[in-house]
Design a protein that fits this description.
Order of helices and strands: EEEEHEHEEHHEEEEEEEE
Radius of gyration: 18 Å
CATH architecture: Sandwich
CATH class: Mainly Beta
Number of strands: 15
Largest sheet: 5 strands, mixed
Protein name: Methyltransferase
Family: Belongs to the asaB hydroxylase/desaturase family.
Helix content: 10-25%
Organism: Zalerion maritima
Structural class: alpha+beta
Number of domains: 1
GO biological process, one term: methylation
Keywords: Methyltransferase, Transferase
Length: 297
């Protein structure tokens, strides 16, 4: 049974030429996989062989739908987390000494950069009181990679799982205080490719174009008994999909998963990787990192 939030098995990329092909850009029509709920109405995904990224078993499926995606390149100033639940950021520099193959290097050198970006780019009805970065994932468009791009429309967290995250990553006493104020869960996405992203770009929909009925919670159950929750996204012709062509390592995409000020709707951004039909055969395999953070006002 196919999964809404499992990665596609990508095909090996050709050896890079010394003169790379043009990077695909502009509006595009492409196939996106959307969530189809199970007959019993209780979607669940079980991790059966270890931590996230391991083998999964699901009781739901996905269906491919051809949709139009707007390229936001050149229109970056039109979007913000508050209005669209996503925001493109440019000219963000990283420490060149970060070892992207070493988790500790990422945590000690990149996490502080992510916090700085969030404090500068996110409004919280006043001063940001606290930022808690709780995990990161590196994805590579390679069938031998530990984590490949996710090829189905989804939202990383729900209202329920965000509250669980607050309680899991702060003390019991502090969590109850933080949950009384405004809190957001935001995914900070950036490419790790040597040049502009040319394969498996990220597609994302404006939050206000996806109705509550389009978003369905899915239980995410780990072998140790911990139960998280993400959401599948059902197709709706009113959804407005976008992507950001030619993303480079000095660019960041903020994807909001939840905002407590918006209740169950949560100001969440449906997103997915997709196959760009104009990706050249010699494209550099997409490599990216996403860092998830709780932001408290």
């Amino acid at each position: 049974m196919s999964s809404t939030v499992t990665a596609i098995k990508t095909t090996p990329q050709a050896t890079l030429n010394t003169t790379p092909s043009p990077v695909p850009s502009g509006p595009v029509t492409a196939s996106i996989n959307f969530f189809v709920p199970p007959a019993d109405g209780s979607p669940a995904q079980h991790i059966v062989d270890g931590a996230a990224g391991g083998k999964t078993v699901e009781n739901y499926r996905s269906e491919a739908v051809t949709v139009a995606l707007r390229d936001i390149r050149g229109a970056e100033d039109e979007f913000s987390v508050d209005q669209n639940a996503f925001a493109p950021l440019q000219n963000v520099q990283s420490d060149p000494s970060i070892d992207w193959d070493d988790d500790e290097s990422i945590k000690t050198k990149y996490y502080p950069e992510v916090e700085k970006v969030l404090r500068a780019a996110v409004s919280m009805d006043g001063e940001i009181r606290k930022v808690v970065i709780f995990d990161h994932t590196i994805r590579v468009a390679d069938p031998n990679a530990h984590r490949e791009p996710v090829m189905a429309a989804h939202v990383d967290q729900t209202a329920i799982s965000t509250a669980r995250r607050v309680r899991r990553h702060t003390s019991e006493e502090e969590a109850e205080k933080l949950l009384q104020g405004r809190y957001r869960l935001i995914n900070v996405w950036r490419p790790l490719t040597r040049g502009p992203v040319t394969s498996y770009p990220l597609g994302f929909a404006s939050a206000d174009s996806a109705s509550s009925s389009d978003i369905e919670p899915i239980q995410h159950i780990y072998p140790n008994g911990y139960a998280g929750e993400h959401a599948g996204v059902k197709y709706n012709q009113d959804q407005m999909w976008h992507y950001w062509s030619r993303m480079t390592p000095d660019e960041r995409l903020l994807l909001q998963c939840f905002d407590s000020n918006l209740g169950e709707k949560g100001g969440r951004t449906p997103h997915t990787a997709f196959v760009h039909p104009r990706t050249p055969s010699d494209a550099e395999p997409r490599k990216s990192i996403e860092v998830r953070a709780l932001v408290f006002g």
